[in-house]
Amino acid sequence: MPGIFLVSTAVLLRIFSNPIANVFQKQLTGKGIHPLFVSFVTYFLLSLFCVILAVLIHWPEVPVDFWIFSVLGGIAGAFGNGFLTKALQYGELSVLGPELEIRKKLIGSAIMIVGSVVIILLKNG
Questions:
Q1: Using one digit for the tens of pLDDT, what is the confidence trace for 89-100?
Q2: Sign of the C-alpha dihedral, residues 112, 62, 75, 82?
Q3: How far is CA 13 from its chain centroid?
Q4: Cα–Cα distances in Å, from 83 out to 33, 75, 98, 122?
Q5: What distance lies between CA 98 and its chain's CA centroid?
Q6: Is the model's pTM score more than 0.70?
């Protein structure tokens, strides 16, 4: 039961904090701060917060599959965010936004399907 509460709390925090963070990031880039620097600082501060929380976790209980997918997801997310930031430097969000949303859903669905297949193969193989 504590796991459900923790996940629910994390999801709610994500839902409310993401739009607020986007507003602050937009204000900073509007003041002339380079978008990649704003993105870097944002993720750096989030990683510091995660390191503090990491002390509370009993790491030997975490399965290897978790680490594989966490590292792959982190790398893909970092590259995706960098490319998105670069794309928005050269184009308008009103033009790129709908296209990005469609591609994000398609790529996310494809990753979910491939990930599910990989998990099934790892457990059966």
A1: 777 767 767 777
A2: positive
A3: 14
A4: 17, 12, 16, 31
A5: 19
A6: no
